[in-house]
Specification:
- With 372 residues, this protein is of the alpha+beta class.
- It has a single domain (50-371), classed as Cytochrome-c3 Hydrogenase, chain B (Orthogonal Bundle).
- It has 14 helices and eight strands.
- Helix 4 (96-124) packs antiparallel against helix 5 (129-149), helix 4 (96-124) runs antiparallel to helix 13 (356-363) and helix 6 packs antiparallel against helix 11.
Length: 372
């Protein structure tokens, strides 16, 4: 009872799997006293599942259309990871032009994923103008993906040995125009979201995590950089041609929802700069080194671990080959397994029910990465 001898009851809440405040098909069971959360239990498993075992039943090339579904909002890191792992096992050399194109695609995917993120966290706080803007502006990037790959979401573009097709005629100019447009919109985004007193009130000091705790619990990517830790696979363990590109790794020290959103906003500008460098320095030459008949292709026995920096954090693939026409073992290390289970269960304790959805969006959780 409280000071007025009124009984404060404990409740169980179920948010998801079909709920507008959940990032995809996901569920969280909450135990709360009044509207203050006492316990939180993440309940994944409502989306497409079993990717790792499915990949072990298919020819090497047939997994290319599958891996992009492991993280729908940012699919291209999975395509690049799978290709990198297979190439390292097979000793398959990737043409230089294809490596630059892959970087371009990864950063395009990062931009559109961060736009989706900013719209999501803003919408979870009732700032509905932001998701309208972000969805519309993101579509211009999806136009470029459709032009390049033939698809808007599942691109199935990166393949072992390079990329599936070369850049269409005039693509570079149209992509530059899209980047220029998004860059001009950044000022409007900042004023709408980060200068908004309601957004500040709801995010500053909310959902904080200690930097040491974050490291101990496997937090990566923008969520870790929001704790002031400058960790980025593109810098710490360069892949493709990232070591030939100049860019900054933004950090913030608030360790809260506001800082996590600010990191994504700053990374949009950095990714725009990276894509521009790629377009300016793109070499000529072949875009694909075909491995032969893909249905008869045998990858030499061995194992490999590869990793990239996705929009949501460090993504890694462990691939084992026994010398056959199919992978013997594929294991995916995605950031959402950490952020979407232990981290969110810890951060939600002591928060209010109204902050559940914003905190979840602030961590940028991708449910299929957990269900895979």
């Amino acid at each position: 009872m409280n000071g007025k001898n009124e009984i404060i009851r404990e409740f169980e809440y179920f948010i998801g799997p079909q709920h507008p405040g959940i990032t995809g098909n996901f569920s969280i069971k909450l135990k709360a006293k009044g509207d203050v959360i006492l316990e939180a239990e993440a309940r994944p498993g409502y989306l497409h599942r079993g990717f790792e075992k499915l990949m072990e039943q298919r020819h090497w090339i047939k997994n290319v259309p599958m891996v992009c579904r492991i993280c729908v909002p940012d699919p291209d890191p999975n395509e690049v990871l799978y290709a990198m792992g297979v190439e390292e096992l097979a000793g398959l050399e990737v043409p230089e032009r294809a490596q630059w194109i892959r970087v371009m695609v990864l950063e395009m995917s990062r931009i559109q994923a961060h736009l989706s993120y900013l719209g999501g966290i803003s919408g979870a706080l009732g700032l509905y103008t932001a998701p309208q803007w972000m969805t519309g502006d993101r579509d211009y990037l999806l136009d470029r993906f459709e032009e390049l790959t033939g698809a808007r979401v599942y691109h199935i573009y990166t393949t072992p040995g390079g990329v599936r097709r070369d850049l269409p005629e005039g693509f570079e100019d149209r992509l530059r125009e899209t980047l220029d447009y998004i860059e001009k919109r950044l000022t409007d985004y900042y004023r709408l979201i980060f200068d908004n007193p309601v957004f500040q009130k709801r995010t500053i000091g909310v959902g904080t995590m200690d930097p040491d705790w974050a490291i101990e619990n496997g937090v990566t990517g923008p969520n870790l950089r929001a704790c002031g830790i400058k960790a980025d696979v593109r810098i710490d363990d360069p892949y493709l041609v990232y070591d030939q590109i100049e860019f900054e790794v933004p950090t913030e020290t608030g360790c809260d929802m506001f800082s996590r959103a600010m990191i994504r906003f700053q990374e949009i500008q950095q990714s725009i700069n990276i894509v521009r460098q790629v377009l300016d320095r793109m070499p000529k030459g072949p875009f694909l080194n075909k491995p032969g008949n893909p249905l008869m292709w045998r990858v030499p026995a061995g194992d490999v671990y590869v990793r990239v920096e996705s929009s949501k954090g460090e993504f890694g693939y462990y691939i084992v080959s026994d010398g056959g026409v199919k992978p013997y073992r594929v294991h995916v290390r995605g950031p959402s397994m950490t952020h979407g289970i232990h981290v969110i269960e810890t951060l939600l304790v002591g928060q209010r029910v109204a902050d559940v959805s914003p905190i979840m969006f602030s961590l940028d959780i991708c449910p299929p990465d957990i269900d895979r």
